[in-house]
Specification:
Shape of chain B: globular
Strand order of the largest sheet of chain A: 2-1-6-3-4-5
Radius of gyration of chain A: 23 Å
Distance between the termini of chain B: 53 Å
Oligomer: heterodimer
Number of strands of chain A: 18
Order of helices and strands of chain B: EEHEEEH
Strand order of the largest sheet of chain B: 2-1-5-3-4
Strand content of chain A: 5-15%
Number of helices of chain B: 2
């Protein structure tokens, strides 16, 4: 019997340049130190990616990192993290996804995949417990995500294979391309799909079947029963609506990002929130691995009324204007997508928003950055800064729901003005000039999510300090910092005690709350070291001009407050209060001296 | 007409749904003593009083101390996006 629980001690390295694979057994202490996820990604980036390289340089590494909790039979443990140097921010890039793929990687006996180099021709990786193959993907190149998953399952003759892949947007190096798994889950942010595309890696297909060994299975069973038994007390909103059920409240509060963050209220919000989705277009709720919460919306819309019914016998929604059908295999819009493709663009057309969301999903683009880049471009158009001369005659206007769907396709394929928009709002603004930077909504080049920091005070630190840029997931904090390393969903209402119990029940490590805090901070400091090495400085820990301006119901955020948020955060993390450079003591206390050497940096 | 009781309709959204009675979907009617405030409604559902709640009354934002009027359509929201309140509760 093994006394190793929660992981296998087996990392796959795939070198696409030489078409070879190696297995690393980094040892128990490695997993105890990094936990997987973010910790592991930052470690490999510091170790293998030379300082200052372009994100599309073959020497960039793309790391698929489940955590020690991923694949355990308990709600929330279906998460994995993907990371690389980001082509959107030139900084630490990271994104998390749910679904089944990450758990399948673990159940196939692997703890992570580090992709090096660049294949000469398109390939995909096929991995099981016994074999790893690098296979030709020429026939898959250019295909949307749905047909790719279907083709891989067909040619490997197994419908239960799990596929992570970049879509056409990733192939075309759209700087906010995502990595899709299970067709309806996305490592969405920071452009990791473009890194995958730059390596000519179309997909990673995996099939496993061996449960990860657990130290104390009964504890997990107990917690799983608690989640399902207390659904109405602890996860009711998620279970019934998923994300997006608070949009009318946000609107009343004057905090709903509207028309590129100029306003906080949108007339027609009730037409496009999760309640409208449930009433109008939703056919089901989907789940992630081992999770009873089932918070994933599945929507279906038919272009013409052909009398289709859902499996519950209810009629499938029909577009009254007979414009669009929306395929349920691509899931449904989360709050961020409803917000970024709806009010932020002045759109209250639910069917069009669902179509835009589907377009991003099958083409492989982050809905937040896609929507926010369009919102920025629409404001530029409205101000006359961006004109038909720049866009080849294409109008980029607020409230134009059908225009957005066309533009998303052009972006993914880099056609016409889509080629410029595919660079993301910061780069496009830098090229355009004409004062267009004044209404950017980016931090470190990453477009902010749909939570206005003027309305939500607690979002300020998240946007300013997330190593990935304008991210809303509080990943810079101890709770979600830990979850992003070990592979636990942010949405599960486990308190710190239950989270720790789960971590110990899975690994048998006997960690304390202090140990868990240190693990979270280790990941955060590792990502900081990477960013500092890449030339990101304290000056980048800020908010753009747009958020200094007031909203009708909320005041702007002044520079003094930004400075105070960042210096407090630096001090809390054990970094220099002015420069944000980790101190030698902190690096030593976190046990990451070797990693810090890879940062080639004078510590504070 | 005695004005010692008022009838309002209340709907709970997002994270606050856990405080809605089992099986209740959409809005439901409440009878309250005249002079009751929004805070009384919050307490009626057992929502902790330190919980962040956004109150809508007939489509406009209202406040805890506001007195409810007969026939009000009241919506209570967590300002957080579904479940993100939990995800924001830092240790």
């Amino acid at each position: 019997m093994s006394d190793r629980f929660g992981f296998w001690n087996k990392i796959l390295h795939v070198d696409l340049t030489s078409q070879t694979t190696t297995i690393e057994e980094p040892g128990d202490e490695f997993f105890r130190l990094y936990g997987g996820g973010r910790g592991m990604i930052a470690h490999y980036l510091l170790k293998h990616a030379p300082a200052g390289i372009d994100a599309y340089d073959p020497q960039n590494v793309l790391v698929f990192a489940p955590g020690v909790m991923t694949g355990a039979p308990v709600p929330g443990a279906g998460r994995h993290t993907v990371g690389a140097k980001s082509p959107l921010t030139n900084a630490y890039g990271e994104a998390e996804a749910g679904g089944f793929w990450g758990a399948e990687v673990k159940r196939a006996g692997w703890d992570g995949i580090v992709v090096h180099g660049k294949a000469e021709k398109p390939v995909y990786v096929w991995m099981t417990e016994d074999t790893v193959e690098i296979r030709d993907a020429s026939h898959l190149w250019g295909l949307e995500t749905g047909p790719v998953e279907e083709a891989i399952r067909e040619e490997l003759d197994d419908q239960r294979i799990r596929v992570a892949q970049c879509g056409p947007a990733g192939e075309n190096l759209v700087r906010f391309a995502n990595i899709c798994n299970d067709l309806n889950e996305f490592a969405g942010r920071t452009g990791l799909g473009a890194v995958m595309g730059s390596k000519n890696l179309k997909a990673i297909a995996v099939r496993g079947g061996t449960p990860v060994p657990l130290a104390d299975k009964s504890k997990l069973t107990e917690v799983a029963k608690w989640v399902s038994g207390t659904m109405m007390e602890n996860h009711r909103a998620f279970h019934e609506y998923g994300t997006g059920a608070a949009m009318q409240g946000k609107n009343l509060d004057g905090g709903m990002p509207t028309l590129n963050y100029r306003l906080g209220e949108f007339e027609g919000i009730e037409k496009i929130d999760a309640i409208a989705v449930a009433n109008e277009v939703r056919i089901d709720m989907g789940a992630c691995y081992a999770c009873s919460v089932r918070c994933k919306k599945v929507v279906q819309i038919e272009q013409f009324d052909e009398g289709k019914t859902t499996k519950k016998g209810e009629p499938v929604a029909v577009d009254p204007l007979n414009r669009y059908s929306v395929d349920p295999k691509y899931g449904g819009p989360e709050y961020e997508s409803l917000g970024a493709l709806g009010p932020s663009l002045g759109i209250d057309d639910l069917i069009a928003v669902c179509k835009s969301n589907e377009a991003c999903n099958r083409l492989g683009m982050d809905t937040i950055s896609a929507g926010a880049t369009l919102a920025w471009a629409m404001e530029a158009w409205e101000k006359g800064i961006l004109t038909a001369e720049d866009t080849g005659g294409v109008e980029i206007k607020f409230h134009d729901a059908d225009g957005v769907i066309t533009l998303l396709d052009m972006i993914a394929r880099r056609e016409g003005i889509g080629d410029k928009l595919a660079e993301g709002s910061l780069r496009m603004s830098q090229e355009l000039g004409r004062g267009s930077d004044e209404f950017l909504t980016t931090v470190k080049g990453l477009e902010l999510a749909m939570h206005d920091p003027r309305h939500m005070e607690r979002m300020r630190e998240s946007y300013i300090m997330a190593p990935t840029g304008g991210d809303h997931m509080q990943q810079q904090g101890p709770r979600n910092g830990l979850r992003n390393s070990v592979g636990l969903c942010h949405f599960l209402a486990y308190n710190d005690e239950v989270t720790l119990d789960l971590l110990n029940a899975i690994t048998g490590w006997g960690m304390t709350q202090e140990d868990a805090l240190v693990m979270a901070r280790r990941g955060i400091t590792l990502a900081r070291l990477f960013n500092l090495r890449e030339g990101i400085t304290a000056d980048d820990d800020t908010l753009p001009q747009r958020f200094r301006e007031p909203l009708p119901k909320h005041s702007g955020i002044d520079l003094e407050e930004i400075m105070s948020i960042r210096s407090n955060y630096y001090v809390n993390q054990g970094w220099d209060p002015t420069t944000g450079v980790p101190t030698e003591e902190t690096v030593k206390a976190l046990g990451i001296e070797d990693d810090a050497k890879g940062a080639e940096l004078a510590l504070a | 007409v005695t004005a010692d009781r008022v009838h309002v309709r209340v709907e709970l959204f997002a994270d606050l749904r856990q405080y809605a009675p089992q099986g209740v979907n959409g809005s439901h009617e409440l009878e309250l003593p005249a002079g009751s405030t929004m805070l009384d409604i919050i307490e009626h559902f057992g929502i902790p009083t330190d919980y962040e709640v956004t109150i809508g009354r007939n489509g406009e934002q209202a406040h805890r101390e506001d007195v409810v009027a007969d026939g009000d359509e009241i919506m209570l929201f967590s300002p957080m996006e579904g479940g993100s309140l939990a995800s924001l509760t830092e240790a």
